[in-house]
Amino acid sequence: MRVSVASKTYVAKATDRERQWLLIDANGLTLGRLATQIADLLRGKLKPEYTPHVDTGDFVVVINAEKISVSGNKMKEKMYRRHTGYPGGLRERTLEEMLERRPEEVIRQAVRGMLPRNRLARQQITKLKVYAGPDHPHVAQKPTKLEITT
Domain tally for the chain? Predict the structure, then answer.
């Protein structure tokens, strides 16, 4: 006779999570590949206690956002669109213009597009801190440097 033993599924709780601060240098990294790995870190998918409906992810600090790279002709052809809310208010900028004006927003939007569209993802994107240059104000949190392989 065979007896089956039911194993319990582990569900993480908000009190169980341990968050780390991770530092990523975006210098020379490809935008899309970088964004997917940042999205996984924010969601906590690389941790054994990952639970889809609980925020178990880490804080991610990205420096040198202005030095990312893209393949092909995307610098001139990739368009970022937003609407002012007024008739005829569609505004377009190329990736090259966005990197000149607001390089932090390029990485933030790429990561945001790789997160689910729900309340939890809006909470998780707040743990992403992006800076154009090599300096950041999160030295007190002692972020550990993470090497991204693309």
Answer: 1
